[in-house]
Every structure is written in C-alpha cells, then in structure tokens.
Amino acid sequence: MARTVKPRSYDSAARRSASRERQARIFQSAREIFVERGYPGATMVAIAERAGVALDTVYELVGPKPELFRLLIETAISGQDRVVPAEQRQYVQDLQAEPTARGKLRIYAMALPQLHARLAPLVAVLQAAASAEPKLAELWTEISERRATNMHRFAVELHQTGELGVSVDHAADVIWATNSPELYLLLVRQREWTADQYSDWLADSWERLLLVRASPRIGGLVPGG
C-alpha cells in the first residue's frame, strides 16, 4: 500500500520575517525621501524604488502615503519598528521606577536626544506640510495634544515626589516647551550641540526652573522657579 505523503507545510515564520524586512526597508527609504524632499515631493513610486520593492508591496504593507507618514512618526516615537504604547518604553518604565524628581528629569533628558534624532526631522516635514494637507494637520494636532497630556502626567509624578517648586501646570508647560523637537533642531542641528550638551542643559535647566532648592541665606527651601 502506497504511503500517503502530506503536503509540505508553508513556512509562515519565514514569510513573516521577509515581510518585516521589506517593511523595514520601506520605512528607511520613506524616512530618507520625506526628509530630503518634503511631504509633497516624496512620491510612493520613489519610496518603492529606493526600498527595492514593488509599488503594490508598499501599499500592502504600510498603506497610502498619509498612513505611511503617520507610521513613521509613531515608530520614531516608539523607537522600534512597530508602535509601542508609552508605558512599554524602557525610559518611561525607568522614570516611573525612579523615586526622586531630579532622577526622573535626568532620565528623561538623557532619553530625548535619541528620540529626537529619529523624530525631529519628521516633525519638521509635518509642520511644513500640515497647512496644505488636512490629514497631516490632524496628525500634527494629535501629536501636539498627546505630548501636552503626557507632560502633564509627568509633572504630576514630579509633584508626588515633594520636590516640585512650582505648580503642576507650570511644570508641564515648561517641560512641554523645552523638550520640543523644534528646540532640539535649533540646538543640535543648527548650533551643533552634542547630544550630551543638549541633555545636560535640559536636565540642569529643569532642576533650576522647577524644583525646590536650598536657600543660601536661611538654609531652607525655596521654589526652583
């Protein structure tokens, strides 16, 4: 009696791996082209050509142009090749585990150069195109409001340490303004500060502006701002 041969099983793991590799090439190529040419000048055809994939593959893996740009922004924020919620990011976990306000501010200041190296050039593209592209205007508003909300949560955590010398709202606004991608581009890209100079300046500024400090005259505590 002849032995029945089962059909060879499809290697789905290899297919997923190949798909992730193509998606990574698309993201890298798209980032380069958006930064080089701006949003209007970045075509999906050019992105596909630089990534070495078919145009249909770009649409299949990442969607149309506005969705691709949104994914670039979100993965730049996450620091991975996929969107990661804030609470799952390592520096956020480190912030939450740190008991002191000074330690929290230092951790955040040290995380920002890596974040903005990925994010800030894309934000510049987003700002330039938002007025003419309704979907990008929505994305810009969403990102700005999300950042403001997260900074308020961060300020609440600072307040809970007992070291905050200003109101929660004031602290949130100061951190929101000074951690902006725009300021990073001014100092690091235009004035050629190093990442260490930028993070040290941020941490020192936040400590002086936001935290209570010892009074040199009476030895007590006075507001940092």
Task: Let me know the average pLDDT.
Answer: 89
Number of strands: 2
Overall geometry comes to elongated
Number of helices: 10
What sequence of helices (H) and strands (E) makes up the elements? HHHHHHHHHHEE
Helicity level: over 70%
Give a quick account of the main beta sheet: strands, pairing sense, barrel closure.
Answer: 2 strands, antiparallel
Structural class: mainly alpha
Strand arrangement in the largest pleated sheet: 1-2
Distance between the termini: 89 Å
**Are there runs of 5+ residues with pLDDT below 50, and where?**
214-222
Structural overview:
With 225 residues, the chain is mainly α. It contains ten helices and two strands; from the N terminus they run ααααααααααββ. It has helices at 12-41, 44-51, 55-62, 65-78, 90-97, 101-130, 134-160, 168-178, 181-190, 195-210, and strands spanning 213-214, 221-222. A two-stranded antiparallel sheet has the order 1-2. It is elongated. The termini are far apart. The model is unreliable at 214-222 (pLDDT under 50).
List keywords for this structure.
single chain; 225 residues; two-stranded antiparallel ribbon; mainly alpha; 2% strand; 72% helix; 10 helices
Quick recap:
The chain has ten helices and two strands, in the order H-H-H-H-H-H-H-H-H-H-E-E.
Summarize the SSE layout with pairings.
Elements: H1 12-41, H2 44-51, H3 55-62, H4 65-78, H5 90-97, H6 101-130, H7 134-160, H8 168-178, H9 181-190, H10 195-210, E1 213-214, E2 221-222
